[in-house]
């Protein structure tokens, strides 16, 4: 009679282990579903620059295969998702006070800050492993981008609360993200840095437009973005100026034969961008206008990316 309970214990332990694993999977499944719904489109959109970097760096599928690009893309997606989720974790309390962000805060989906921190760490580890498998250059660029993400979300001096510094962070981050892909099959050179700077300018300009969108919440939370410190209109004009510099660089790179010749016509895209910007200023640079503007310039730069691939 005494042996029977001992015989049943492994079964009970197995059932308990299965229940624990099932609970963990359900919990992290909920986290994944939330962040996929909230961030997936942004994460995927930001993969354009490293993917274009791979192709502009001379990638040929018949010569280079798909393993290294696949690992780099995996690492880039994981790193970008890590940066977004770490930012959500770091800005949790301020997001609750933001009328635009509050309905999407993870705690309203029953997700704890500890679980979010764990998810961010797992994504960072995944990115590090993927980049390490690709090579030391990818690991170096990935580490630099991760540091910039940490500074933006976590530093009181070099982060989102410091005007100009936050824009420089995005300028450098956008440049490095392109070079992450470019240096996969090409040595780092002046051509790559020039093209990377174009992407950095676009990234910084887009972030300025985003600051216009997020003005109300940042003002409530005392986050001194460029829009809060200098005003929405000036931040929007700074965004237009950075976009203008990006278009000028695009035309210059095409003129020197670094990018395809059809991009010599990029000033026409700038004129369309300028017309939309003037219309936005007449409407008033508020949150709705910033979103309206974002939709339009994203289509323009998607077209620019397609033209880049023709070379």
Topology summary:
Blueprint: H1 3-45, H2 48-56, H3 61-64, H4 67-90, H5 92-97, H6 113-134, H7 136-154, H8 165-182, H9 190-213, H10 215-220, H11 226-230, H12 232-255, H13 266-283, H14 287-309
Brief account:
Helices cover 79% and strands 0% of the residues.
Describe the 3D structure.
The chain has 311 residues and is mainly α. The protein folds into 2 domains: 29-162, Tetracycline Repressor, domain 2 (Orthogonal Bundle); 189-311. It is 79% helix and 0% strand. It has 14 helices and no strands. Helix 13 packs antiparallel against helix 14 (287-309). The longest helix has 43 residues, at 3-45. The protein is globular, with a radius of gyration of 23 Å.
Primary descriptors:
311 residues, Tetracycline Repressor, domain 2, 14 helices, mainly alpha
Strand content bin: under 5%
Helical stretch tally: 14
Please identify, by name, the CATH architecture of the largest domain.
Answer: Orthogonal Bundle
What would the principal axes of the Cα set say about the shape?
globular
Low-confidence stretches: none
CATH T-level fold name of the largest domain: Tetracycline Repressor, domain 2
Q: What would the average pLDDT be, to the nearest integer? A: 92
Q: State the major sheet.
A: none
**What is the CA–CA distance across the termini?**
80 Å
* C-alpha Rg (nearest Å): 23 Å
Structural class: mainly alpha
The level-1 CATH class of the largest domain: Mainly Alpha
- The tally of structural domains comes to 2
Q: What percent of the residues sit in helical stretches (DSSP H or I)? A: over 70%
Order of helices and strands: HHHHHHHHHHHHHH
Oligomer classification: single chain
Query: Number of DSSP strands?
Result: 0
């Amino acid at each position: 009679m005494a042996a029977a309970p001992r015989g049943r214990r492994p079964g009970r332990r197995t059932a308990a282990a299965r229940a624990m694993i099932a609970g963990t999977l359900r919990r992290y499944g909920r986290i994944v579903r939330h962040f996929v719904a909230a961030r997936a489109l942004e994460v995927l959109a930001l993969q354009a620059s490293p993917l274009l970097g791979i192709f502009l760096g001379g990638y040929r599928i018949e010569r280079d295969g798909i393993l290294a690009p696949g690992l780099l893309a995996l690492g880039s997606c994981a790193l970008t998702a890590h940066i977004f989720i770490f930012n959500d974790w770091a800005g949790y309390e301020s997001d609750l006070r933001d009328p635009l962000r509050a309905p999407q805060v993870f705690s309203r989906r029953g997700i704890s800050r500890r679980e979010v921190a764990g998810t961010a760490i797992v994504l960072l580890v995944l990115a590090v492993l993927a980049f390490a498998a690709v090579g030391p250059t990818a690991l170096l660029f990935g580490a630099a981008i991760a540091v910039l993400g940490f500074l933006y979300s976590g530093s009181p001096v070099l982060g989102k609360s410091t005007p100009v510094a936050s824009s420089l962070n995005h300028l450098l981050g956008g440049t490095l993200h392109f070079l992450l892909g470019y240096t996969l099959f090409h040595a780092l050179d002046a051509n790559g840095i020039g093209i990377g700077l174009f992407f950095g300018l676009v990234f910084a300009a887009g972030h300025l437009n985003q600051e216009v969108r997020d003005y109300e919440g940042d003002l409530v939370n005392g986050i001194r973005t460029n829009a809060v410190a200098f005003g929405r209109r000036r931040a929007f004009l700074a965004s237009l100026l950075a976009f203008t510099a990006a278009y000028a660089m695009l035309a210059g790179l095409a003129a020197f034969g670094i990018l395809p010749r059809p991009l010599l016509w990029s000033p026409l895209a700038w004129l369309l961008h300028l017309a939309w910007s003037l219309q936005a200023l007449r409407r008033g640079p508020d949150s709705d206008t910033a979103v309206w503007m974002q939709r339009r310039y994203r289509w323009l730069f998607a077209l620019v990316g397609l033209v880049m691939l023709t070379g």
